[in-house]
Amino acid sequence: MSWSVPISSSGDPYYTLPNEWDFADERLALLGAAYDPGSIALAQRLGVGAGWRCLEAGAGGGSFARWLCSATLPSGRVLAVDADTRHLADLPGLGGEVVQLDLVADELPERAFDFIHTRFVLLHIAEREVVLERLVRALAPGGILMLEEGDGLGVLDAMPGAFGEVWRAFARSTEIAGASQSWARNLPARLEVLGLTDVHAEADIPIFRGGSPMARMWHLTWVQAHDALVGLGVTPEVIATAQVELEDERQWLYAPPTVRAWARQDDLPDL
Predict the structure, then answer these.
(1) In a domain, 65, yes or no
(2) Does residue 160 fall inside a structural domain?
């Protein structure tokens, strides 16, 4: 198996995965296919269903927002917001609402949602604490906030081979751009400080075979981040080796953990 994709020509010297990239549709669709099953299973455990008013914050490719539409409409509400809504054009046809919105600068309606969800959003926002407080204020009494964020949790240092070397450089590139690869592990305590109750958390490490959809997603990520990775000292040869590992169906690889934290709003705290 061989995947050939033109290298991204982004002029940004640091980590960036702009949604206007030619292969962004495919990368976002693969990300959704890889992570939606876990997201949906937890949302179903939490009771999300018909009539729920839902906010998908940082909706990206929109796959989870599409599931919310199928699960909660027509009696509920699904609002998907993102700074770049180009991949959400089909949601109104499913009954959802789409708003272009900057989670840092723009306000959200308060006490308006029974369920709020983010996935791999807050760790990339330098002002993540401001956004988290805003999401808490947007919860209706009894509403549930469900956050899914990546966290190295010591796994990054143990990842072997060229894939591990590239991943560590990729993590550094995100932190240069304002991300935090160690923020999510403290989410349960943060949610309690913000006044939420019934706080729970879990983490899992994705393990996947070379040649799989998740491997293809990471392959595309390395292509899109190629210039930033080289700028951090990773040679093109190491990146190419990591991509060969991702294409090799005999290889089993793993990505850093996903931390899932969720909690309930009993009342509106004074933030």
Answers:
(1) yes
(2) no
Distance CA 131, CA 261 (A): 16
Pairing of strands 139-150, 258-264: antiparallel
Closest CA to 10 of 230, 167, 18, 233: 18
Within a 13 Å sphere around the CA of 56, how many CA atoms are in the beta-carbon half?
30
Strands (E) located in 120-251: 139-150, 197-204, 207-209
Amino acid sitting at position 8: S
pLDDT in tens, 104-163: 999 999 999 999 999 999 999 999 999 999 999 999 999 999 999 999 998 988 999 999
Q: What are phi and psi of 39, to 5 degrees?
A: -65, -45
The pLDDT confidence band at residue 20, using thresholds 50, 70 and 90, is: low
CA distance 110 to 206: 35
Give the side-chain half-sphere CA count within 13 A for 85.
Answer: 19
Q: Considering its fold, how many domains does the chain have in total?
A: 1
Q: What's the pLDDT score for residue 35?
A: 95
Q: Residue 113's domain is classified under what CATH number?
A: 3.40.50.150
- Choose among 79, 17, 77, 84: nearest CA to 50: 77
Identity of residue 95: G
Residue 188 has pLDDT above 90, yes or no: yes
pTM of the model: 0.91
